[in-house]
Amino acid sequence: MNCLMQKANDGLKTVCAPPSKSASHRAIICAMLSHDDCIVKNVILSADVKATLDAAIALGRKCSYADGKVMFAGFDKADKVVINCNESGSTFRFLLPICAALGVETTFVGKGKLPDRPYKVLADAMSKHGVIFDKTQGLPMTVSGRLQSGVYEIAANESSQYITGLLFALPLLDGNSEIVLTGQMQSQGYVDMTLEMLAAFGIEIEKTAKGYFVKGNQKYKNKCVTVEGDYSNAAFWLVYGALNDGITVSGLNANSTQGDKAIVDLLQKMGAHICIKDDRVIVEKSKLNGIDIDVGQIPDLAPILAVALAFAKGGGSITNAARLKIKECDRLQAIYDNFTALGIGVKLHDDGDGITIQNTTDDNIDGGKARGFNDHRIVMSMAVLATKSESGIIIDDMEAVNKSYPDFFQQYKKLGGRADVIDLG
Predict the structure, then answer these.
(1) Please, which pLDDT band fits residue 223 given cuts at 50, 70 and 90?
(2) Sign of CA pseudo-dihedral 177, 181, 187, 188
(3) CA distance 123 to 56
């Protein structure tokens, strides 16, 4: 679907951050594994979160959703299931070791770029501990056997989702286990989120010099939890406010372990005027200065940071970004293609690990066409970019926002932005 997005109208703007997609995945999984009655509040069923909830139902968990709450009742564990992960990498990589720990023969299916995303590192580690894979690349894939306790060696620079999946699964096993990490850790904030949610459900994990020690025979305890606001999606509004007429984003936990909370510090380093009051982050319209940004711990922020750099004096670079190539699309190439089409100077690094925004403007840009690449974060970033264009930007795949933020365009319009569906014939 194509959409014409245009410069926002002036005026005071306020928006409530949507629930954290990452925290929603983790809360639903912990509630599923508790076996007892649980309630998870403040949940929006984006496509990714719905995939995780549907997986819980497929595994035999009795649950229902109404008024932003997921209510869990009984658990009649299935012996053999098919789990459709849709396009959700979190659903797939989290549930893979969990299903093996439960001893459920599971066929995982997915669509979009998910079947092309790697999982061999996790599969190899699990294969050494009693699990049988019919393949270690691509989907559909069937896993059988039962996961056994022991020492799991994982390359920490591959994916934090592998580590999270094991942290969910290993407490269920009969014996104690250890996760030994090699290489430099990427996206540490996401693992910290996992540890925080596990602790909320009574699961004890001990951090060691090499990784994590996990006691076996632990029980997930029934719990009522509320999902906190999402810094990953709030980042779009914070950049929106800095580039336009300011904004207040509410519903954000100032003490959150979310790695993408770094958006606040990064905008401040770029010169944005930001004030934090209770659960609100207030950003004024600001003249931004370019900086170089290492996104190794915050890869999901790269597209919207690129937009901020496009209007920052001197531009800047995004580095340690090779993993962006295996997201919903090759996000580095997507940024390059769209910026080039819209007349913004940009250069991909020869080592494939980053991108530099070369010539920038603190004023409006001309309109044009951009691609969404069926990637929610690219679409939302282009929508923010369009607020600096009088004539607007036409972008396709606008429905990709359903993956993480179904209400994005409704909020966009409430804030004064224009987003009109058009037919290009």
Answers:
(1) confident
(2) positive
(3) 21
Per the document, the length of the chain is: 425
CB-count burial class (<10 Å; 0-12, 13-18, 19+) for 178: middle
97 within 8 A of 122, measured Cβ to Cβ: yes
Query: Is 79 annotated as catalytic?
Result: no
Q: Provide the 3-class DSSP secondary structure of residue 16.
A: strand
DSSP codes of every residue in 224-282: EEEPPB-HHHHHHHHHHHHHTT-EEEES--TT---GGGHHHHHHHHTT--EEEETTEEE
With a CB cutoff of 8 Å and minimum separation 6, the contacts of 387 are 5, 6, 7, 8, 240, 243, 244, 417
Query: At 219, which amino acid appears?
Result: K
In this prediction, residue 13 carries a pLDDT of: 82
**Is residue 207 within 8 Å of 198, Cβ to Cβ?**
no
How many C-beta atoms surround the C-beta of residue 174 within 10 A?
9
Contact between residue 348 and residue 306 where contact means Cβ atoms under 8 Å apart: no
Tokens of 201: 């459900």
Cα 332 to Cα 11, 105, 256, 398, distances in angstroms: 33, 37, 28, 19
Task: List the structure tokens of 30.
Answer: 């912990």
CA 61 – CA 405 distance, rounded (Å): 25
Which position among 230, 300, 375, 397 bears the catalytic label?
Answer: 300
**Nearest alpha-carbon partner for 75 in 24, 38, 108:** 38
State phi, psi for 291 to the nearest 5 degrees: -140, 165
State how far the Cα of 9 lies from the Cα of 18, in Å rounded to an integer.
22
pLDDT at 423: 63
